[in-house]
């Protein structure tokens, strides 16, 4: 017969009350004390479940953007711009919260449509997808992107490319900067690439051919060849080099991820890359200015579940095993639809910092760092 294990009965006289273990007491959500988004999310941080993570997200975001030594990377995926979240990105850039943006090409493309003065529409579910196709209505769940919008911005992209020096080796950063400059010179309203251009925030698109923007560049290059004109050179590794040299100059780095996918992984892999550069170069020839760094802060807003095994659902703790995240860092993960909670989190953060009279100031000069990046890219020229 199997041995029976006898468990020692616990003694009620030894029960703890929570305070001796420094447990944080929860508080009822009292709406009579709520006057703004900051009040609401501060109160929710002392509730439970998804509500608590939304509240804690404001704590993390406030800390990372106000840390004077921290360079913040924003990664974007999903249809955030046709979902009308583009001005949130503008706010984060304009207020100095973020210093580099890494995005899908589709998100930047649809954002450029909006920034250039064009409109997205609500989908009418009474219209079938074959009808939408015939009318030039491209459906993104419940949003319509007009094919005419995409035709119009194709002409703008051609115009921008035609003005570039034909000896330019293209990468996504070069193109997004040029498009931002076009917006600055031609459009009065706000836009992601316009804000990025004005604040000298680089915008990278790692999977740059996976979008209407990439298709437009391809068509322009193909047309050049057909017309016996010199096509641009194109090298996506220049983006990686630029980002690596920029991150390498930082004391601390943070990441904000809306969604996941390629932008998030491309941003996070920078820590292993810098480590590999130090260990994989020919003996005695590794660039001496390269040093290791890991992310000290992270905020992820994405409903993806971890058990599906994709990067989008990967928790920050898993990133520690890859050498991407500092195990002593501050990380918050909100498993919710970004179009619902991102506006609350950002507005609450803005209100909190205003109440505390926190001025976003950094101990680094982004413009000077970008100049140094260009000099280093000339020294270690990949193309």
Overall description:
Helix 1 packs across helix 2 and helix 7 crosses helix 8. The protein has one domain (27-379): Deoxyhypusine synthase (Deoxyhypusine Synthase, 3-Layer(aba) Sandwich), CATH 3.40.910. It contains 15 helices and 11 strands. The radius of gyration is 24 Å and the shape is globular. The longest helix has 18 residues, at 49-66. It is α/β, with parallel strands linked by helices and 383 residues long. The strands form 3 sheets. Strands 7-2-1-9-10-11 form a 6-stranded parallel sheet, with helices on both faces. It has a 3-stranded antiparallel sheet with strand order 3-5-4.
Helices and strands in order, then pairings?
Layout: H1 37-44, H2 49-66, E1 70-76, H3 86-94, E2 100-103, H4 105-115, E3 121-122, H5 129-135, E4 137-140, E5 143-146, H6 147-163, E6 169-170, H7 172-186, H8 192-199, E7 203-204, H9 212-226, E8 233-234, H10 237-247, E9 252-258, H11 261-268, H12 270-280, E10 295-301, H13 316-321, E11 325-334, H14 338-355, H15 366-379
Parallel strand pairs: 1-2, 1-9, 2-7, 6-8, 9-10, 10-11
Antiparallel strand pairs: 3-5, 4-5
Structural class category: alpha/beta
**Name of the CATH class:** Alpha Beta
CATH superfamily: Deoxyhypusine synthase
Largest sheet: 6 strands, parallel
Strand order of the largest sheet: 7-2-1-9-10-11
* Portion of residues within helices: 40-55%
Please, how many helices?
15
- Gross morphology: globular
Rg result: 24 Å
Order of helices and strands: HHEHEHEHEEHEHHEHEHEHHEHEHH
Mean pLDDT: 95
- The CATH topology is given as Deoxyhypusine Synthase
Tell me the count of domains: 1
What is the CATH architecture assignment?
3-Layer(aba) Sandwich
Low-confidence stretches: none
How far from one another are the termini?
74 Å
Query: How much beta, percentage-wise?
Result: 5-15%
């Amino acid at each position: 017969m199997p041995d029976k294990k006898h468990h020692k009965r616990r003694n009620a006289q030894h029960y703890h009350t929570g305070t001796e273990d420094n447990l944080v007491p929860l508080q009822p959500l009292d709406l009579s004390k709520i006057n703004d988004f900051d009040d609401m999310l501060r109160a929710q941080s002392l509730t439970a479940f998804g509500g608590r993570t939304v509240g804690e997200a404001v704590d993390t975001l406030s800390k990372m953007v106000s840390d004077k030594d921290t360079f913040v990377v924003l990664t974007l995926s999903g249809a955030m711009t046709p979902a009308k979240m583009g001005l949130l990105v503008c706010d984060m850039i304009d207020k100095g919260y973020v210093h580099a943006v890494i995005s899908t090409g589709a998100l930047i493309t649809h954002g450029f449509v909006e920034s250039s003065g064009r409109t997205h529409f609500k989908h009418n579910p009474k219209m079938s997808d074959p009808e939408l196709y015939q009318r030039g209505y491209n459906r993104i769940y419940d949003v319509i992107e007009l094919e005419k919008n995409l035709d119009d911005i194709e002409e703008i992209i051609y115009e921008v490319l035609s003005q570039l020096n034909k000896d330019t080796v293209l990468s996504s950063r070069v193109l997004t900067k040029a498009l931002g400059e076009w917006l600055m010179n031609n459009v009065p309203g706000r836009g992601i690439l316009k804000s990025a251009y004005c604040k000298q925030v680089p915008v990278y698109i790692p999977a740059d051919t996976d979008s209407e923007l990439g298709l437009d560049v391809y068509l322009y290059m193909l047309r050049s060849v057909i017309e016996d004109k010199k096509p641009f050179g194109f090298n996506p590794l220049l983006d990686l080099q630029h980002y690596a040299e920029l991150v390498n100059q930082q004391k601390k780095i943070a990441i904000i991820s809306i969604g996941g996918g390629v932008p998030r992984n491309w941003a996070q892999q920078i820590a292993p890359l810098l480590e590999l550069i130090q260990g994989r170069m020919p003996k005695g020839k590794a660039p001496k200015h390269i040093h290791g760094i890991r992310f000290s802060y992270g905020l992820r807003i994405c409903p993806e579940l971890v058990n599906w095994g994709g990067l989008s659902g990967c928790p920050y703790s898993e990133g520690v095993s890859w050498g991407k995240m500092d195990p002593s860092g501050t990380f918050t993960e909100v498993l919710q639809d970004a179009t619902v909670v991102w506006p609350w989190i950002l507005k609450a953060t803005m209100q909190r910092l205003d109440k505390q009279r926190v001025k976003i100031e950094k101990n680094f000069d982004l413009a000077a760092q970008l100049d140094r990046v260009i000099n280093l890219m000339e020294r270690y020229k990949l193309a």
